[in-house]
């Protein structure tokens, strides 16, 4: 069973800021709630450690496309099956839309239940909200709470 999700968030920050934050691997654990660690292996591959409800996961993902200030796409090459893309859209000089699309194969009871009940979408929306806070705080020159 394959699952997918598509979520978007509008952010009061220009694309240059949202791109810079998302393209910096060191920022990911700050806004992706289930990500415990991401370690670059080289320019295109990253080792991920996740802590999900009911399971810890590790996998290696490879960037498949990087278009500055436009899109970042990836797929896993070891571990779980997972692929996705984040796109960055200019709304005006001071705001942008970030869209996240993910395809994955849920394994185990908890992951299948999450896919069936749309819990995965709820978590993705939460993470996009955290990213929105980080980006808007960065533009405002503030230090985001809890980060």
UniProtKB/TrEMBL annotation:
It comes from the Bacteria. SUPFAM superfamilies: Bet v1-like (SSF55961). It holds the Pfam family Polyketide_cyc. Residues 11-116 form the Coenzyme Q-binding protein COQ10 START domain. InterPro entries: COQ10_START (IPR005031), ORF3 (IPR047137), START-like_dom_sf (IPR023393). PANTHER family: POLYKETIDE CYCLASE/DEHYDRASE AND LIPID TRANSPORT SUPERFAMILY PROTEIN, POLYKETIDE CYCLASE_DEHYDRASE AND LIPID TRANSPORT SUPERFAMILY PROTEIN. This is SRPBCC family protein. It comes from Streptomyces mutomycini.
